[in-house]
Amino acid sequence: MTLSILLLCCAGTAIVGALTGEPEPTRTGTAAEQPQQPILAAPGEPTEQAPTQEESPTDTPSTVSSSAPSSVAPSPPSAAAVPVVQVTTVTEKATIRYGERTVKDSSLAEGKRVVRTKGVNGVRTMTYEVTTTDGVRTAKKLVKSAVTKQPVTQVVAVGTKKPQSSKCDPNYSGCVPIASDVDCAGGSGNGPAYVRGPIRVIGDDIYDLDRDGDGIACD
Q1: Which candidate among 38, 159, 178, 199 keeps its CA 20 to 30 Å from the CA of 121?
Q2: What pLDDT score was predicted for residue 149?
Q3: What average pLDDT does the chain have?
Q4: How distant, in Å, are the alpha carbons of 67, 167, 179 from that of 200?
């Protein structure tokens, strides 16, 4: 079809030149060197158009680069940790040491000690208010103190009785006075000391009181 149109165009040009008396231009060179005439499409035939820039497909994705730094919103500062404060009540007990009191007792030998009343320790109860901050004790305040058990004072008796020197001779069981001479009472002896029997001789019969030697004097 294109060749037919081209031939028609060339023939028309030759006819117009012949009528006007203008010689037909001589064509030299190859067909590739001749200027190409626009190709006219016949009525009803679709024409081929070069794709426009908007319709031209592209295989390379468009990448938009930005040199502007991205803006990051600063995070708000974290809130300061609030300390945990706790107040509790604590009860403690303390021992009250009993006291001691001494009394004189003339029935006991001098220097001898006897516990008459046994001492008992008392108890004191104390209440504290304890403050802790984050688990660490920061304060301790005494709010109450009371004696919940009274101590009992220990009583000790101390003897004051003076020891007495013996006036009896140790050679006899029963009291035979110590003297320059001792005779049996009611006898013929002249003393100066006398003793009533019976008296058992447990040592030496220094006063010759056991005349029959049976171990019993003044019988």
Answers
A1: 159
A2: 96
A3: 76
A4: 139, 17, 18
pLDDT, tens digit, 9 for 90 and up, residues 68-96: 455 555 555 555 789 999 999 999 999 99
One-letter amino acid at 10 equals C
Inter-residue contact 154 to 121 (CB < 8 Å)? no
Ordered domains of the chain (ranges, CATH): 85-161 (2.20.230.10), 165-219 (no CATH)
**Bridge-partner residues for 172, per DSSP?**
201
pLDDT tens digit sequence for 26-39: 454 444 445 555 55
The two beta strands, 193-195 and 182-184, are parallel
| Residue 158 banded pLDDT, cuts 50, 70, 90 | very high
CA dihedral 27, 28, 33, 39 (to 10 degrees): 20
CB atoms within 10 A of CB 218: 22
